[in-house]
Amino acid sequence: MRVAVFSAKPYDRQFLEAANAAAGAPHRFEWIEAHLGPRSALQAAGAEAACLFVNDRADAEALAALHDQGTRLIALRCAGYNNVDLTAAARLGLAVGRVPAYAPEAVAEHAAALVLSLGRRLHKAYARVREGNFALDGLLGLDLHGRSVGIIGTGQIGRAFARIMGGFGCRLLAHDPFPDAGTAARLGLEYVSLPELLAQSDIVSLHCPLTPATHRLIDAEALARMKPGAMLINTSRGGMLGTQAVIAALKSGHLGHLGLDVYEEEANLFFEDLSATVLQDDVFARLLTFPNVLITGHQGFFTAAAMRAIAETTLGNLQAFATGGIPLHPVSAPSG
Ligand code: NAI
Q1: Which of 25, 272, 281, 333 would bridge with 86, disulfide CB 3.0–4.6 Å?
Q2: Is the CB of 209 under 6 A from ligand 1?
């Protein structure tokens, strides 16, 4: 099959080509650096499948443009599908496949890395030591042992994060619309309401999908419920935080630390080297000024094991569609 790979980076090429070669090279990839949009869709002319990532916007217009020129499969190389208009895809008869799970530990470990770096001020210490400044003022650390960690969403990543934080001797609180008694017993966590989790946790970490219900889940009211000086970690999707409310809470000192791997407007920033250009996003620029904020550019998934798993599952979706017309891990439009 001809496959147009949007938002293609050298590392996508490396892992997808390796997976394709291992399967006997049944597919021919075309590498398109641009994000998918109505105009860039034209670059996929003749490709039966379009392979997309988190910041490709598969809205009705882009999907129609792909469909008009022969695309029949949208193969997401990510788990989340909030960027695909599934209703439009169904109307056009486009199949959608995704990678439901790939090393959830990779994202959970990255969330833990943000906790440790912020808690022990590693991002400040690294720069200081390189400049010959060995003073400790301002580097006073946060002990994890005995702290309460609030986990919002106990799916694959949330559970992996719970296991890690449990290992540090943290008390584990969780909130999920589908609490699971087995998970609670196995991981030693306690399910509580969201307000209770916010009020009791020293560290709050988001591990739920972006849906209408979780959009701006952490707004001014939620932040006000959090303990003064608490830490907030978001490795899920940027839209779950009200960024202006977060900035206000950082300015007042109520929010003690913020660790982000995602940002609501990241499509214009992340995955590109913009170091020689002027940053146009004033909200993001403000976030960067805080000493107690640590931001990474959506790299939670980016480990060798996870990239291999993404490529292999994507190949599985392409193969299943090529032979049976249905991807291995299909995503369907919401009913009703
Ligand atoms: P999952 O589907 O295994 O688990 C999600 C959990 O969230 C489920 O238990 C669900 O019941 C729960 N949930 C749904 N609505 C909720 C709400 N309103 N409040 C609390 N919990 C709620 O998903 P998984 O694999 O654990 O991934 C979680 C999220 O992590 C993804 O949706 C994605 O946005 C993000 N992610 C980030 C990556 C990165 O590189 N930073 C990579 C992969 C995923």
Answers
A1: 333
A2: yes
Contact criterion met (CB below 8 Å) for 26 and 322: yes
State the CATH number of the domain containing residue 214. Answer: 3.40.50.720
| Segments forming the whole domain that contains residue 179 | 104-295
Whether 154 and 174 share a structural domain: yes
117: confidence class by pLDDT, cuts 50, 70, 90? very high
Ligand 1 lined by 154 (C-beta under 6 Å): yes
Q: Which atom of ligand 1 is least distant from the CA of 209?
A: 32
Write out the chain in H/E/C secondary structure.
CEEEECCCCHHHHHHHHHHHHHCCCCCEEEECCCCCCCCHHHHHCCCCEEEECCCCCECHHHHHHHHHCCCCEEEECCCCCCCECHHHHHHHCCEEECCCCCCHHHHHHHHHHHHHHHHCCHHHHHHHHHCCCCCCCCCCCCCCCCCEEEEECCCHHHHHHHHHHHHCCCEEEEECCCCCHHHHHHHCEEECCHHHHHHHCCEEEECCCCCCCCCCCECHHHHHHCCCCEEEEECCCHHHECHHHHHHHHHHCCEEEEEECCCCCHHHCCCCCCCCCCCCCHHHHHHHCCCCEEECCCCCCCCHHHHHHHHHHHHHHHHHHHHHCCCCCECCCCCC
295/251 Cα distance (integer angstroms): 17
Residue bearing the CA closest to ligand 1, atom 27: 157
pLDDT band of residue 336 (cuts 50, 70, 90) is: very low
Tens-place pLDDT, residues 148-165: 999 999 999 999 999 999
In a domain, 317, yes or no: yes
For 260-296, how does the pLDDT look when each residue is reduced to its tens digit (9 = 90+)?
999 999 988 999 999 999 999 999 999 999 999 999 9
**The model's pTM:** 0.93
For 297-324, what is the mean pLDDT? 96
